[in-house]
Amino acid sequence: MKQTTNSIVMIRPVAFRMNEQTAVNNYYQKVLDGLLPATVNAKAQQEFDVFVEKLRAVGVDVTVVDDTLSPDTPDSIFPNNWISFHENGDVALYPMFAENRREERREEILDMLEDKGFVISNIVDYTSAEEDGFFLEGTGSLLLDRANSKAYCALSPRADEELFIEFCEDFDYAPVIFEAFQTVDGERKLIYHTNVMMCLGETFAVICSDCIDDKKERKMVLDNLKENGKEIIVITEAQMNNFAGNMLEVRGSNEKRYLVMSAAAHQALTPKQIEQLEKHAEILSSSLDTIEACGGGSARCMMAEIFLPRK
């Protein structure tokens, strides 16, 4: 199994704004005072277009899907939460915490990928769990070490343990389960998505290990990473708050590896961390300030990786 891919799907926003339904447990979202919604969306579109251009310039195959005005989906720019694609032709659809995010699941995106020559042989649909109030938000909640068949998950209101275990059984992954916290107004609160505090590359892992308050759990997670030969690059909680955990390794032309992150994440890293990371992949960063502030997500969340076979 490959850990990285050359192909990704990205959704270009049409009505991007701060989603009031996700702000209840995404502590990264901010209201940008004095900006009209149209201005916020225009800025997000501009950041999106520049980002896509940079990815394509190094040879990443980006399928851009334009969002629609109706239904109202302010977070559609983060498709990795509702869908994941797998090498055996499986597609997984995930149950989403925010009701207005459930509308992001669009079948025509699958049709578009099939038109591009990707083969979809089976859809594994977990979305009925929403009716019972259980959620598992795709590769936001699940960090897949595809090459070593391990899945990492920080439990939260958006990542249910039983659903996670069901996913691992269906897709043949060994579950690595823990809790991760961030300090919000002096209180320790669960981090809403695993991919905010951790990134898994082919030969490295970036992790804010300080978020795992339980020492046994922390050791267990780090041991799992070491066992698979990953160089561990530890980031601080302050760096995580600048989205330095929200990165994704992709492949460009000639299979060259790139570590994709936002400009804010890149600026938050120390020279030593950058040096460590650049041994594994070339850093590609782009300014996503508006998207990060209003959406509370960053570069990783914007890319849904395609591992499907091709015709």
TrEMBL record:
Record-linked InterPro entries: Amdntrnsf_FN0238 (IPR014541)
Where are its TM segments located? none
Q: Which domain of life is it from?
A: Bacteria
Q: Which UniProt keywords apply?
A: Transferase
The residue range of the signal peptide is none
| GO MF, any single term | transferase activity
> Which named protein is this?
Amidinotransferase
